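If your schedule permits, I should be very grateful for your opinion on a structural question. What I wish to show you is a protein chain and, alongside it, a tokenised description of its three-dimensional fold. Would you kindly read the sequence against the tokens and tell me how you understand this chain to fold? Here, with my thanks, is the record as I have it:

===
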Amino acid sequence: MKPATAISPDYLKRPVTGRGFWALDPKVTFLNHGAFGACPQPVLRYQTEMRRRMERQPLRFLVRELEPLLDQARQTLADFVGAEAENLVFVPNASTGVNTVLRSLTFRRSDELLVTDHEYNASRNALDFVAERTGARVVVVPIPFPLRSADEITQAILAKVTARTRLALIDHVTSQTGVIFPVAKLVREFSARGVETLVDGAHAPGMVPLNLQRLGATYYTGNCHKWLCAPKGAAFLHVQRDRQPLIRPLVISHGANSARTDRSRYQIEFGWAGTWDPSAYLAVPEAIRQVGAQLPGGWPAVQARNHALVVAARRVICEALGVAAPCPESMLGTLVAIPLPPLAANQVPPPPLFLDPLQDELLFRHRLEVPIIPWPARPGRLLRVAAQLYNSLPQYARLAQVLQKKLTSR
């Protein structure tokens, strides 16, 4: 990430893009891009045109035109994430990518599957499910938060590797705590020990620079609908060439017995899993183009500006609440988590959604959309804020003012 000090604070006082560029509700200050992203209006219009094109002549579009269109979109995405297009396939979301790999592999009772306690709940559930069915053992690595350095992460994880460790499921950017894990170093260390890596990169594409070929993870999955700002339902799975024969889509369809020899079985099977709306995949290149065009420096400038903004936002909020920053700036992308006072026993919300009452108050009383995340479990909690081109520093200053009045005046 470009250091936050390289960008003038005055530059952060206003959004880069106007309201008309986004479909967001102008009455709400949206500080939660990390949850589901937000898609620009021009990209949504492009997606709509793809849908119209499909519905004008469904057979022609889906049977004759779709595959080369998907190939083009895949190539553009591969160029963006530093991959060979043949190693990359589209999936609807990163959770599907994680499940696809885990459900394709065969584990034995003696195998250990490594994961940290920062792993996204859906991905952890998939790992537990597979372990229960195969008898493999899940080894959970506690990672402290707050953190002093990336070395704490590396040392804690590698200390749990044994001769029985078969696979490590590792976040690139943690969802709850917003920390960039040292994945390049971890992948190298795992590889040297004969351990395969499945990197859950749900937040990474568009947030941090990627070069999947150089990274060398056995399996890598990432969302396009978050920081790339593509429509919902667009993500990818990247698999090293020698492991592709093992990886099958969750839906087995026509490709399983296809006689085609012009592309790999991996591409054939993932290219068609039944009738679906492919418009989100096809709009990924338009999202890359549109968002990258908002600053003269393209995507590096977008990432540097958003990083600088979220670092400045964290500083403002931490100062207002009188808390220390929980990790170094070098471990941040465009998502930060800040510890909050724990919930009182009478404040713990009921099921099924368990939304924190403070999150509701911020939205319905102050029109601030920002998540309050249980950590490590209730009553502990974190405030998680994100930064995107539609955000500006005064928005976080207002949030800090509201939180200061609410949480420090007791």
Q: What stands out?
A: The radius of gyration is 22 Å. The longest strand covers residues 165-171. The CA atoms of residues 71 and 282 lie 9 Å apart. The chain is about 40% helix and 15% strand.
